[in-house]
Design goal:
CATH topology of the largest domain: Rossmann fold
Largest sheet: 5 strands, parallel
Number of helices: 13
Strand order of the largest sheet: 5-4-6-7-8
CATH class of the largest domain: Alpha Beta
Distance between the termini: 69 Å
Shape: globular
Oligomer: single chain
Order of helices and strands: EHHEEHHHHHHEHEHEHEHEH
Strand content: 5-15%
């Protein structure tokens, strides 16, 4: 007698798979935001997920599997490389929720992992080997989210080289890494710009940052549903009103990593009064100036990538007060 199969799921009727609700890979991707290619990689390369298989070989995931995927995402957001998640204490083999076992991975272990990647980047930079640097760069992105890649791994090394330029050869190494990173960040910005409908302008405040820092800030913010337009370093502050009149952005983000001067609130308030869009401040200056701008219409996004992204989204939606 032939075995009857549910057409929609490919699950044999009457089998043990009917005892719990199971989801095909496309539905898991929709529920978690993790694409099917990544889900298969987590299974094949690292054994992080072991879905049920139908007789025809299709993957089916339980609610426990979906929760495990979400827990993996939380670990990755915390800075743990995906390749390390299943190895430390065989965490995923335990029945306890992954997030309940967070004490098993100390911060110094995470930092050691960052340092290992920085050493590989440094080796490629010291050899001026762009092909090797490209390879390491891709491997880092396959292991960590965007904010960790730049904030915790690449930018700290970039800053170290910047501070050591008095030593022979260090200036050339910094220029090599800086040029490489700027080109890669620009590629990513161009990739997402065409996919996003709303527009946000990002501009350096009084040239108080380097181009790479400005571009990375724009990249962090571009994860929101907003096309980001970056203005060149050297943009006059008093001409921003003209630019905003022409472009008609939803928001203008000024970026600075310098300590704010006492007259900064006055400059920003004057600019805000001339704009038809939201004026926002980002970078270290936003953290330091937040109290002095508390009674103004100017919003502070902060200096950490994921927080900036979240606050921008809330400002654009009108759900966060300045």
């Amino acid at each position: 007698m032939p075995v009857l199969t549910d057409v929609a799921s490919g699950v044999p009727q009457g089998s043990s798979l009917e005892q719990e609700e199971l989801f095909p890979i496309r539905e898991v991707a929709r529920l978690t935001g993790v694409n099917p290619v990544t889900l298969r990689a987590w299974e094949r390369r690292y054994g992080l997920i072991v879905p049920t298989r139908t007789d025809s070989g299709h993957r089916l995931y339980s609610m426990a599997d979906i929760e495990r995927v979400r827990s993996i995402l939380e670990w990755i957001e915390r800075g743990v490389a995906v390749s390390k998640i299943g190895k430390i204490g065989k965490i995923l083999a335990k029945t306890a929720p992954l997030k309940a076992l967070s004490h098993l991975i100390p911060s110094d272990l995470v930092q050691a992992d960052y340092t290992q990647w920085q050493q590989q980047v440094q080796a490629a930079v010291s050899a001026f080997d762009e092909a090797h640097l490209e390879q390491v760069y891709g491997q880092i992105f396959s292991s960590y989210p965007l904010t960790v890649v730049f904030q915790d791994i690449l930018i700290p090394l970039w800053k170290q080289l910047l501070l050591r330029q008095d030593t022979f050869g260090q200036a050339s190494e910094w220029l090599f890494l800086d040029g490489f990173l700027r080109s890669r960040v620009l590629q990513r910005l161009l990739l997402v710009r065409s996919l996003q409908p709303r527009r946000v302008i990002v501009c350096a405040l009084f040239d108080q940052c380097r181009e790479l820092e400005l571009l990375i800030t724009a990249l962090f913010l571009s994860s929101v549903d907003s096309a980001i337009q970056v203005l060149a370093i050297g943009q006059p502050l008093d001409e921003l009103t003209l630019i905003c009149e022409r472009i008609k952005p939803k928001a203008l983000v000024l970026f600075s990593n310098h300590a704010p001067t006492s007259d900064l609130p006055r400059h920003l308030n004057r600019l805000a009064m001339s704009l038809d869009c939201q004026l926002l401040l980002a970078g270290d200056a936003a953290d330091l100036a937040q109290s002095s701008l508390a009674e103004s219409s100017i919003g502070c996004l902060g200096s950490e990538g994921s927080i900036m992204r979240q606050r921008l989204k809330q400002f654009l939606a009108g759900n966060l007060d300045t």
